[in-house]
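LOG
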Amino acid sequence: MVPATVTQRKRLAFLALLAGAGSRGIARERLLLLFWPESSAGRARNALYQVLYAMRQALGDQSLVGGDELRLEPSVVLSDVAEFQEAIARGRLDTAVELYRGPFLDAFHLPGTPELERWLEQKRQELCRAHQTALTHLIADAMRRRDFETAVRYAERLVATDELSDRMMVTLMEALVASGDVTAALSRARVHATTVRRELGANVGPSVTQLVARLVAG
């Protein structure tokens, strides 16, 4: 739960940025550029001091550590982003995918901070790719173990991250076929084709059409 005093948009973005930076932290000078790009150096540093003061008042004096490089103290401030990244680094992929709750700060916008917007989008894509890669490995592992129910469940979550991806749809279809549900695989292919046509004005790629043809023929 984020304390009420931290919910102001800039302070919330500040907290999320530090959480996303993890144990590496982020340089004070970088923070000034991200949050106050149009301010003078003096005004930007004063604004940063005020945000840091508010954060420590809300989360505790030991919540932020570091000198030139600021970071959250993990023993004081828990972050699902940090936990997700640690789980990925330690190979605990099942834990990681359970921690992932959707795009990082989805639809968050802070006017007048173009560098921050770019950083957030890069972090959003980085975390999403890590989530997709983790799911792909879990699906492959479940398929090897012939645990097709688990493979389908993870494949459904993979497709949900990018409903226009032919590659991800093929992964789901193959898991459904392995589970014995060819009808569901063909049904999902039809829905996918409709979605791609509606959103992109194009037909699905050959990987989907060829798999459909093999299933129909088989």
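LOG (cont.) second protein
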Amino acid sequence: MSLPDSLAHHLATRFGDRFSRAAVLCEQHGKGEGFYPPAPPDAVVFAQSTEEVSAIVKACAAEGVPIIPFGAGTSLEGHVAALKGGVCVDLSLMTGIVSVAPEDMQATVEPGVTRKQLNAYLRDTGLFFPVDPGAESTLGGMAATRASGTSTVRYGSMRDNIVALEVVLADGSIIRTASRAAKSSAGYDLTRLFTGSEGTLGIITRLTLKLHGIPEAVTSAVAAFPSVAAAVETVTATLQAGLPLARVEFLDEAVMEAVNRFTGLSYRAAPTLFFELHGAPMAIQSQAEDLEAIALDLGGQDFRWTADAEEGNALWAARHKAFYAISSMHPGRQVLSMDSCVPRSRLSECILAAEADIAASSFRGGVVGHVGDGNFHVAVLVDPSDPEQMAEAEAINDRITRRAIAAGGTCTGEHGIGYGRIDFLAEEMGGAVGVMLKIKQALDPQGLFNPGKLFRAP
């Protein structure tokens, strides 16, 4: 829809040069980092406070104009596309760290703060925020998409690390979803409801987050395995033994070969695990030795571990360079990353089936994963301008995703639904999607918040 002149005039008068209808700026705000085509909004407003967000929402609601929240634009499934036009509310100027309560191990921040900015602020407190999605995303966006990443196996996802949210609702009213108490049995868990709602129920304008103590010691380790099954079994055995894995990352044989070519490293070309343990120095040394014993017992080779930070970074170099190494498999093409998560008991079979899909395709690619929680990504190299390639990649994505759902898993471990995975959500959740839609209709009766995401736009 086109923006009513009355609304444009109102927003321009209220926000001055923080309101824009410039085509270039709107184009930038209509696309994330995925392969979906841009769908620019009609205008962009940069908000600086909760009260301003409320004012924008009230103005748009009065005119029936869609509202799309925007953080850093790092999402992958079309979350920020303005599928029905409207006003994009950019929250990147809301970067206040409102308070830090070291005794409570909590911080309250505005939605435009990034993980790195928060951790830099916390540096002298002995605390840190652990959720690392692998991009410089805003914390508001991470909450909206229920983000996770490499450290989920120990610290959990955004779902597990949010204490309370401040949210602007569709009528412009402002609510707080919970207190700062460590636990509560008071009413519905609204914090969980808005976490992962992808901007379809309200706009998050403040977050109270759980913090964690910076570990006394960090040990890094790496080992190659004779098979995917042996690598996955090692992860399961390590977790069952109670070892404090903070990260455990998987790279398959194809990716390890690419890493060696790209970096000049000399890792064995085999399914490989990269580990990180957090804890007290004496305890963590013993745990690293236990980890080595488990890995070797299950066929692990070339096991190496170190408690030295610099040496640890060197061990992890292959994992850190994996994306660039995959990109180098076919110069000129782009990496398309697929996202599935399954119970660990079904992980090895799903990875092997995905590798077979790649081998039977016209693409180069491989598999990487946060295997401690069963999350894996299939990465293939495509030319987005080639319809035949994109159709083939979509067919592979369909097979991998439906296989994950059939295995008791999910269509997305961390990327979210956006509008790219709507059909998979319906297949995975069945009748529960109808319940979600009723919640959407109750909280946003005009359907103005991020229309076309999670559900088909009417």
